[in-house]
Amino acid sequence: MQTQEKFRKKKIVIFASGNGSNAENIITYFQQKNTAEVIAVFSNNRRAKVLERAHRLGVKALHFDREAIYQSNEVLRLLKDMNPNLIVLAGFLWIFPTNILKQFPNKVINIHPALLPKYGGKGMYGMHVHKAIHEKKEVETGISIHYVNEHYDEGKMIFQATTAIKPEDSVQDIAEKIHELEQEHFPKVIENLLFPLPNE
Ligand code: GAR
After folding, report:
1. Is 112 one of the annotated active-site residues of the chain?
2. Residue whose CB lies within 8 A of the most ligand 1 atoms, among 111, 131, 141, for a mutation test
3. Mind telling me which Pfam families this protein's record contains (predicted)?
4. Is residue 11 part of a domain?
5. Cystine design at 108: which of 48, 102, 124, 148 (Cβ 3.0–4.6 Å)?
């Protein structure tokens, strides 16, 4: 029994609203390992590219609406059945409901494309963040991976990585630098959370 438990793959569920480059990267990273797997991708946007990506990669792709996540508990019920070890918000733009957070304490994480607490909060997502950073002529930016609580971008920090911004960098250049950091670090941070080293 113990042996079976030890070798059972850990389960990851992803929530995403749009493109899904992070979701795809996480899915393929763990498809190359036999330690964990993404078992489902949930999106609030029926036409989100992330659902196509999940489907193409053989991962269950589910769409839900406001009623299902905020009122009827349908999303909560599905999650309870799936019983994931980690819920990953990868470009998910709705506030994550308290009832799900309560059910999965310390098991919901988010990635944000800036060095929180700067450039966080409602309305600060995707290109809006990069534009604001460009306008302020910041000399560095980065990514933040943190636990989720009931406020946008405020839970306990898990990991940050920074990148320099040159004066001539455009908003698009900043976006690309962030994309590279996310691709490099996000799956590894997830792996470290699922399989902490003995002294962590
Ligand atoms: C990512 O850059 C992520 O950090 C950001 O949305 C992008 C999603 O890209 N998240 C936020 O802004 C959350 N406030 P993707 O759909 O290609 O993974």
Report:
1. yes
2. 111
3. Formyl_trans_N
4. yes
5. 148
